[in-house]
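STRUCTURE:
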């Protein structure tokens, strides 16, 4: 997925607001509360927490879909 400035703004707003997001990677959907965006060289990674408290990391280029849940 190529991230547009609008999508990055929505992800950053979800981090600030503590909103849940649905991410799809390799056909699997994850619902997390994003906590931060890390830069690992040229690749940015979003770190999120699941409802069970597990911390998951997702490389932004690996994501197929991103939706902020209301």
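SEQUENCE:
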């Amino acid at each position: 997925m190529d991230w547009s400035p609008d999508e990055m703004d929505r992800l950053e707003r979800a981090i600030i607001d503590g909103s849940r997001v649905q991410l799809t990677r390799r056909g699997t959907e994850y619902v997390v509360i994003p906590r931060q965006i890390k830069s690992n060289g040229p690749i940015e990674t979003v770190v999120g927490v699941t409802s069970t408290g597990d911390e998951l990391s997702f490389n932004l280029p690996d994501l197929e879909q991103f939706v902020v849940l209301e």
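REMARK: The chain has a mean pLDDT of 96.
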